[in-house]
Amino acid sequence: MSSSSVLTSIALESLPKLTSGKVRDLYDIDDKTLLFVTTDRISAYDVIMGNGVPSKGAVLTQLSAHWFKVLSDRIPGLKTHFLTLQPPAGLSAADKAVVHGRSMQVRKLKVFPVEVIVRGYITGSAWNEYKKEGTVHGLPMPTGLQQCSKFPKAIYTPSTKAELGEHDENISPEQAAKILGDKYASRIEELALKVYNTAAEYAAERGIIIADTKFEFGLDEETDDIVLIDEVLTPDSSRFWPADEYEVGRDQNSFDKQFLRNWLTSEGLKGKDGVEMPADIADATSARYLDAFKRLTGKTLDEALNELRA
């Protein structure tokens, strides 16, 4: 996909749009089904950039679908919202062309209002808090951790789910339990850690460290099942590090949008609205996403999209 095919705005004729997020647009198919359409928009520090990243929407969609299959195979009884990468039958030919490769049909569920973050390594906001307080999300941590150290075991560190334009806030598991309710809080924590550890093992076999990641969960109100939803283990929702370059005590090279965050910070643009990325920054971000995709799936994005057409 070339830069000319970058899609930051999508308007389907065949389905009613329900909402637009930072990256995804949601369309209503029927009482039980949604169409997730992933644009090439990218946000950093909770601000959407003025331009998009080539191939990003397809990478996020195809990689999430890959993970849903891998995780379902490796975790008995795991429920996900994923149905199919094929577009719904009622879509017009023009709309099908727009959403090809960047959309998935998913189940409609009640969404839990917490960002479920699991950290295997100390970096980002967790490292900043630890340096000041010796804690992460208010949880006491071992002394002597260095930047990007691996935790003795992965930790559950939730955050609030902010409205568009607002900022997520790190909260403790106890605060999350008050939001989620005791009935579901411990089940969500247990499931999130299991999914992370399973994914981390799979990624390690392919030369990638998953330093941390963000999950979302929904509730199937008919069965009371907790269901893994939204995007899963993508370069947008995770920090991916090349295992062969990993070194404690410094910032890591990465296959995710940390590259973009670093550029924004160095240019004094962190948190500013309306920023347009130079073409080289957008293309370099795209290259990192495509590299992660190939390492994790064993195929190029073009190969995955051609399989979808077959």
TrEMBL record:
Gene Ontology annotations of biological process type: 'de novo' IMP biosynthetic process
Task: Give the pathway.
Answer: Purine metabolism; IMP biosynthesis via de novo pathway; 5-amino-1-(5-phospho-D-ribosyl)imidazole-4-carboxamide from 5-amino-1-(5-phospho-D-ribosyl)imidazole-4-carboxylate: step 1/2
Which Pfam families does this UniProt record tie to the protein? SAICAR_synt
**Classification via InterPro entries:** SAICAR_synt/ADE2_N, SAICAR_synth, SAICAR_synthetase_CS
Task: Specify the SAICAR synthetase/ADE2 N-terminal domain's residue ranges.
Answer: 18-276
Name the Gene3D superfamilies on file. Answer: ATP-grasp fold, B domain, Phosphorylase Kinase, domain 1
According to its UniProt record, the EC number is 6.3.2.6
Q: Does the keyword Disulfide bond apply?
A: no
What PROSITE patterns does this protein's entry cite? SAICAR_SYNTHETASE_1 (PS01057), SAICAR_SYNTHETASE_2 (PS01058)
Gene Ontology terms, cellular component aspect? cytoplasm
Q: Which UniProt keywords apply?
A: ATP-binding, Ligase, Nucleotide-binding, Purine biosynthesis
- Major enzyme class: ligase
Q: Does the keyword Ligase apply?
A: yes
Q: Which domain of life is it from?
A: Eukaryota
Q: Which family is annotated?
A: Belongs to the SAICAR synthetase family.
- Protein name, UniProt field: Phosphoribosylaminoimidazole-succinocarboxamide synthase
